[in-house]
Amino acid sequence: MTNQSTTSTAADSAKNAVDKNMSAASKVAADNKNTADEIRNAATDTGKEVAERTVAGLKEASDKAATMTTKTQKSLGENIEKLSQGFREMGFVNKRNFEAFAKSSEITVRALENFGGEVAAYTKRSHEDRVAAAKDISGARTMAELVEKQTAFAQHAFEEWAQQAIKLNAIYSSATKDIAGPLGERASAATEEMRNMAR
């Protein structure tokens, strides 16, 4: 019986050791799963942060473009008003001056419509690009892919913004020249009329 008891005790001890090892292995596996979940959640949170910062930066750039447009339109209107006031003060408001001012005003309206249309089109394109980029960035599977997609989008957004700024500057410059044309011609004619009266 001693052999049987010893064998039974050894078997029980072996079984207890296996059970302890299995329990420890299960605990390690659960800990590893929790660690993996924490790493995945941290990567997801980082991706969301990057996407949110990108969208915030683009919104800020869009707001700045809208502010620039508003200031430009206001400045154009103020300059035309000042020019009109100057003509009234100098006593040159007559039929020909009024016609030149009306023509200049028509050109101003067309220029502002063109400028506003261009800004609206850019804003729409920019918004669509941001939505597409957010979808693309959210599909990143690795941190490197996320950074690569975010960097590509940021570069594309900056290039689009720079091109739009150049385009708006060209529209503004052209409009300023076109608006001043009829008024400049009338001012030259008025100066010539004053010279003729002085003779």
Q: Give the ordered list of helices and strands.
A: HHH
Residue-averaged pLDDT, rounded? 76
Distance between the termini: 147 Å
Largest sheet: none
| CATH architectural category | Up-down Bundle
Would you give an account of this structure?
By secondary structure, the chain is mainly alpha-helical. It has a single domain (48-198), classed as Four Helix Bundle (Hemerythrin (Met), subunit A) (Up-down Bundle). It contains three helices and no strands. The longest helix has 89 residues, at 2-90. The model has no long low-confidence stretch (mean pLDDT 76).
Summary tags:
Four Helix Bundle (Hemerythrin (Met), subunit A); 199 residues; mainly alpha; rod-shaped
Could you provide a short overview of the structure?
By secondary structure, the protein is mainly α.
Give me the secondary-structure topology.
Layout: H1 2-90, H2 95-138, H3 143-198
